[in-house]
Description:
This protein is an alpha+beta fold. It contains four helices and five strands, in the order αααβββββα. The longest helix is centred in the N-terminal third of the chain and has 15 residues, at 10-24.
Amino acid sequence: MDIKEIYKKRKEILNGHKNELYALAGMINTDDAAVFSVREKICNECPLKINNTCNTGMWIHPTTMETRNSSKEGFIRGCGCRLSAKQKSRYSKCPAGFWGGEFDAK
C-alpha cells in the first residue's frame, strides 16, 4: 500500500489499532468484540492468511475459494493488512467480501 492509500484509509487504520489496544486492555465493547471475533474466525479459515497478514502474493475467488498466485478475472488479491488490527476496525471490510459492513447504518 502506498502513502496515498494509507492517507485515504487513515480513519480505518487508526480505528483498528485503537480497538486492538482497547481489546488487549479489556476495554472493548462486548457487542463490538463479538463482531471482531467472528471476523477473526473467518480470517483464520482463509487460505490467504499467513501468520497475521493477508497475503498480497495470492488471489482468491470469493465463491469457490480457489486460490492462485496470479491475477485472474473474478479473483481478489489479498489486501496485505495486519489482520489483528483490520478485523477490529469498525470501518474495514474484507476485499473479498467475507466480512465487513456490520456497523453500517441500517
